[in-house]
């Protein structure tokens, strides 16, 4: 059978706990579908940073470039400033491999309840298409008159036509395969350079897709709408920062952060894509065996799908849904007393 | 009795509808408490812009400077680009009058229901303290290679020590009068210049307030938390953009956008402060008499409080709560069939 080379980077905190379980599930799905996953594990993490002064080796990106996929747990740990840990691993990988799409599907899974009152599962299914390579997350900026009364700090956002066009086009293509609706997050009333530009390109590209219903909404109003009227939202396209906020929010209004996967996708396939959970490393509950592995397992299913193993991906989804629906095995965040490993094993058994 | 000079700018859309009702209520409260409000109305709006090419006259700021308070409906109308309407009126007023605090209290009022399942009113009371004079909303930036394949757009965020210190200090002072808890919204993992600076000043100032419980939370996680676990939030301090998003969200998880007032406050009182609703001009329902005037009435109560008329402000609050609790007069967003004017008159009667 076919074999895929996967780089596994469990990272920190519960990233380690959930990755183990997800790998069990993915290996089982592979075995049933006649392919295999050849894992190589990397200890790149805040722990490594504390020992060596860097999150990954100098040739880290080069090493990863030889893989078919990257499976990331989570990075971040108290004592290591976030901007060090993230800009030393997660963000460089996203950028070096032109993973310009961050795809974050959310839906209310069976056996779970929404934080919102009186909403059905159908009203709570959407996908956030987040720009993942530029925008508000830029290295440009700095501090002037450090520590003085007249200190000023600048932080530049950088939007390019190439970057904005490709993410918006991706969202429209995706909408054609779903409900045919796209909503763009903007804030052109406050951010008068970047967002009018974003809106202009959105208008240009929506003209190419007369069959897709296109609308735009200010990010503040859109956040409110996710809570008050999520039913008319399906594909939501957003800049790096807005997509980050809206995808956490979308996860919260559906089944919670323990359930939401995230794909950092290089659509042309010249470079490996990377799959992870939306949640972070949650150091407070790390190593206790209580983290919910569902998001990481579903991230694995996204990876299988991306590798072309569509049926195996669907099976993993179905197995997760079966276990959640039965409700016998639930981690504490789902209201149960089961461990991370028990939930992982239940999904393996359901396969 | 004392008389206060108030500039009323109903603006556009439902701003006009709700301002009329709020004025009725405020005049009645004034009459009962032995003071008066001397209103002067300004037609500054998108309509004016369409006719004259500007939202307000050249000496608009100077005219407003002579008032004790500014009462704003809402600005914005289809056809007038948002960045024109807002930067031609709302934002210049905020900045010219150093209204560096945007105070947005939210709570679940009696007779209304939260979008969240199973939350009590006590869990849903908080106040967003939004920085209102700098940060992400800056005029600095521009477009390079317009329309070309290699087009680049820059948008600068500008944070100053003075600006960040004063808003964070305001939040801590406010927390002392409430539950003694402050949560700061950050995103230092993505925005590596501005937000580490914000966090540093937050840490400095929290050291001055050992009795206030200070924590920080990334804005994405904080948005999720407002939905999944709002109960431990009270004072939330945030930058201009984050405060904008979080305050709409906070309004949505409590009683909805029809209920949330907003004060643009110049704490030292050298300049007039401005009071408005969090919601916008909602052109789709304008002029139909169905807009909910509660947010605007409560904005009026904030104005009375700011003017020192604390008891009158409390009375307005109590009257609104009485009407909502009785539930006989409700606008469509509250599930009823009453008009804007009927709800306004009911509050007047309750006074
Ligand atoms: C209209 C817009 C510029 C404004 C803002 O973002 O400041 C509004 O959303 C608000 O919250 O007052
Ligand atoms: C950890 C952080 C830098 C990251 C981001 O904002 O991109 C995370 O929140 C995410 O959403 O993947």
TrEMBL record, chains A, B:
Its EC number is 1.1.1.83. Residues 5-347 form the Isopropylmalate dehydrogenase-like domain. It catalyses: (R)-malate + NAD(+) = pyruvate + CO2 + NADH. The keyword Zinc does not apply. SMART domains: Iso_dh. The keyword Lipoprotein does not apply. Keywords: Manganese, Metal-binding, NAD, Oxidoreductase. The lineage of its organism: Bacteria, Bacillati, Actinomycetota, Actinomycetes, Pseudonocardiales. Its cofactor is Mg(2+); Mn(2+). GO terms for molecular function: D-malate dehydrogenase (decarboxylating) (NAD+) activity; magnesium ion binding; NAD binding. Belongs to the isocitrate and isopropylmalate dehydrogenases family. It comes from Amycolatopsis azurea DSM 43854. InterPro entries: ICDH/IPMDH (IPR050501), IsoCit/isopropylmalate_DH_CS (IPR019818), IsoPropMal-DH-like_dom (IPR024084), TTC_DH (IPR011829). This is D-malate dehydrogenase (decarboxylating).
